[in-house]
Amino acid sequence: MAGYYLGVDIGHTKSHALITDAEGHVLGFGTGGNGTAEHSNYDRFGRVLHQIVSQAALSAGIREGQVDGAGFGIADYDWPSERAPHRDAIAKWLELQCPLGIANDAVPGLLAGSPRGWGVCVAAGTGVNCRGWDEQRREGRVTGFGLRFGEAAGASELVAEAIKAVALAWYRGGPPTALTSALVQYAGLSNVEELLEELSLSRRDIGAEAAPLVFEVAKQGDPVALDLVRWAGRELGKLALAVGRQLDFLDSTFDVVMAGSFFRGSPLVAETMQETVLARAPGARFYRLSAPPVIGSVLLGMEVAGLDSRAMAGAREALLSAEVSPKEMKTP
User: Fold this and answer.
1) Would you tell me how many other CB atoms lie within 10 Å of the CB of residue 184?
2) Are residues 266 and 200 in the same domain?
3) Which end of the chain is less enclosed by CB atoms within 10 A, N or C?
4) How far is the C-alpha of 78 from the C-alpha of 74, rounded, in Å?
5) How many angstroms separate the CA atoms of 267 and 215, rounded?
6) What's the mean pLDDT in 226-242?
7) Which of 233, 203, 202 is nearest to 215 (CA)?
8) CATH no. for residue 76?
9) What are φ and ψ of residue 235, in 5° steps?
10) Predicted TM-score (pTM) of this structure
C-alpha cells in the first residue's frame, strides 16, 4: 500500500518526528528539544518543528511535500484560539501539502494505547493531562493546568504535596515522616528548618525531579509517603472519571490509557487509579502505553488522510510490535 505519513510529538523536554508508510514501517525519524509555543513562542515551535521534520524526511529519503497525512500532538495546545497560530506556524516552517490533524499531546497517547482508538487517556509525567474521544471524535477534557484548577497528579504535584507534608510534620500539624530526612539530604542541607527557610524565601526549589525520592520513601513503608502515592492514583482516577462522564462512558465499556513516565514510579499509582475508576465505571479497561507517543501522532495523520480503520489497525500493530525506542528509530 503506497503512502507516507508523518507524526510529530512536541514536548517540553523533547520533540520527535516519525515518518512511516501505510503499513507502519518506520522510514525516518527526527529528534529535538523543547518545541512548545508556551507564552506564544511560535518561533521556537517552528524552528524545532522544521529541525525534526527535516531530519525525518532526510532519513526517509522523501520530500515533505510527498507526505499524505500528518498528525501533530502538541504540549500546551489547550484552547481553540491556539489552533490558527499553530496552523500558521506549520505552514510557515514546513512544506506539507496534505491534511493535518492537530491535537493536544494526550490524544496521540489515546490513539497509540487504545486498541479501538477511543476512550480516555491519562497522561502523567512532570505534570498531568487527560483527554478523551468517543467513536464520533467528540472530545472530553480537563484544563491541563494542574493544581491551580484542581488537577493532579504528576511528578510536580506529588513533590509539592511531599513538601507540604514535611512542613506539617515540622510544626506538628501532621504526622512525622521519613520524607523530612530524605528531602533534607536531597537538598544537601543540615536540618528541616533550613530546608523550609530556603524554600520559603525562594533561595532553592525542589520540583518534579525529586518525585523518585518520594516513591522510594513510600517503597520503604513510610505511611505519609504511601498516602501521597495513593492520593496521586486517586486524583488520576478522578480525572479519568471526569472525562468519561463528559463522554457518557461510565455505564459502558471503554478504554483507559495510562501514558507517561509517572506510572513507572510505583505500581501503586496505577493500582489506586484503577480502583478509583472501577468503583464508578466497572466497564473500564486499562492499557499502559510504553511506546513513544509519536506513534499515535502518525496514526492521527493516517486518520485525517482517510485511511480505513483496518489499515490503521494494521499499522498500529506493526509500530507497537516493533518495540523500538526513539533512539533506535534514528536508523530505520
Assistant:
1) 18
2) yes
3) N
4) 9
5) 10
6) 98
7) 233
8) 3.30.420.40
9) -65, -40
10) 0.89
Here the cell at position 267 is: 505500581
- Structure confidence by residue, pLDDT tens digits, 254-296: 999 999 889 999 999 999 999 999 999 999 999 999 888 899 9
Q: Using alpha carbons, select from 256, 238, 234, 271 the residue that is nearest to residue 158.
A: 234
What CA–CA distance (Å, rounded) separates 242 from 120?
10
Could you tell me if 238 and 262 lie in one domain?
yes
- Give all strands of the β-sheet with 4-10 in edge-to-edge order: 26-32, 15-21, 4-10, 69-74, 100-104
pLDDT score for 14? 87
Q: How far apart, in Å, are the Cα atoms of 233 and each of 72, 102, 187, 247, 317?
A: 28, 29, 26, 21, 29
**Cβ neighbourhood burial of 73 (10 Å; 0-12, 13-18, 19+):** buried
- Write out the residue range of the structural domain in which residue 278 sits: 109-290
Which residue has 515533505 as its cell numbers? Answer: 64
Together in a domain, 152 and 31:
no
Which of 39-48, 160-169, 317-326 shows the lowest mean pLDDT across its residues? Answer: 317-326
What are the beta bridge partners of residue 18?
Answer: 7, 29
197 with 317, same domain: the answer is no
The predicted pLDDT at position 327 comes to 53
The cell numbers describing 299, all together, are 496514526
Instruction: Give me the DSSP letters along 114-171.
Output: -TTS-EEEEEESSSEEEEEE-TT--EEE--S-GGGGT---SHHHHHHHHHHHHHHHHT
- What DSSP state is assigned to residue 263? G
E strand or H helix at 205, and its extent?
A: none
The type of residue at 108 is P
Per-residue CA distances from 180 to 155, 174, 203, 228, 229 (Å): 18, 12, 18, 14, 16
Domain count for the chain: 2
User: Which is it for strands 254-259 and 284-289: parallel, antiparallel or unpaired?
Assistant: parallel
Distance (Å, rounded) from C-alpha 271 to C-alpha 182? 25
